[in-house]
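hi!! sorry for the late reply, been swamped w classes. u asked for the two structures so here they r. pasted raw, havent cleaned anything up. first the sequence of the first protein and right below it the tokens
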Amino acid sequence: MMIDCRKCEHYYVTWDKDSPHGCRGMGFKSRQLPSTVVRKSSPGMECLLFKKKKIRSQ
């Protein structure tokens, strides 16, 4: 199962056009989604810091 970083509390969009995706949990920015970077650097591993965002009530 692929992790969707956009649903994680640690994910953020950066102002850096070369590295638009960021992960506060792991402390890096990248061109690709952070979960993709983790999977490529550690084959067979998924992000262990994924924490589902809480939905804000209105």
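now the second protein. again sequence first, tokens right under
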Amino acid sequence: MAPPVYTYLIADLATNTILEEISLTGVKFNKPLNDSGKFAANWKLGPKTSHLDPYDLTMPARRVIYAFRDDRPMWGGIIWTRSYDSTNQVVQIGAGEWWSYFDHRKVLPTFTYGGTLTQVAALTESYRSTDQNTIARQLVATAQAHAGGNILVTPADTDVSGILRDRSYSGYDLTDLGDALRNLCNVIDGPDMVFDVLPGSPAPRRVIRIGTPRLGQQGSSWVWEMGGNVTAYKWPSDGTRMATRAYATGQGIELGLPIAVAEDTSKYSMGFPLLELERQYSSAEDAGTLAGHAASDQQAARMPVALPQLVVRGDIPPTAADIDRGDDGWLVIPPDPFHRAGFEGPVRVIDMEFNPGTNAERVILTMAPLLDGVA
């Protein structure tokens, strides 16, 4: 089987018009779950590119880059940085998935600025008993309804989760839209969310995909086995983010600041100390929503965690084209110097890192945090 061929196209952000195919080296990009992926590469200029305008083609915040694996679009995002070095005639390109655009936007309804200093503060975007998937899609749609704000991202589907939420975003908070989407994902039973590219003509479609509430493959779980389709693994463990008590703060100041608390006292008899964390949720105005955030934060941080990383072959099933963010799998590690008894258990993909151009296609899969040690 011939190795896959990766190609890279530059397009216009506003119109999605394909402008040029370019040759890149040192390519590295990732596709995380519930966050924005990044892309980095080098473009070597020279006689073969003399007919092109690299300055225009790599203009930050105006151009986008698409990565194709054979004829399938695998990644798309906005060029945010570029750096040219005249000594070697190389342009270094840095880009972020469509989610990165919404990190530069605020949660506000459309408005025409009237020059009054209190106008924006008085604006509100509110949802009552609304499906969480609908909230996410509407936040993105409203942002793109502003003049100059449409980057042509559309919903991949209209599925709902059946989980209703109350959310209110006040103008005086100037809530970052990217963070508002992350907060929807991170509450208990929150939806998985990714911005992605799908096949389209003449250019890929830019879409948002939302789980109901989870994303992942249909049917049986993938199987990854060290010594088989897994060539290496890393097992980083982290106790710095463990918390036995979590605080979720809402909107308010001083004595009027609402704070919900969730605590797991069972860990103290195991020898773990009191560990605290605090997160702020300005859009959460009622006690139930704040309590849900606190419980979710404490649950997620209840133990030290391991975040296994697998180096898998991209050319054998499941191939690099088969695997996606949110997919479930079964990991098998035979006994080795670290896992004396071996390891076998369920895992879930939360990030994928691609390094095209190497002799053999390898993909680094980061798995969802696993409880490390005593459950």
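hope this helps!! also noticed smth abt the second:
The chain has four domains: 6-97, 124-210, 222-237+305-371, 240-300.
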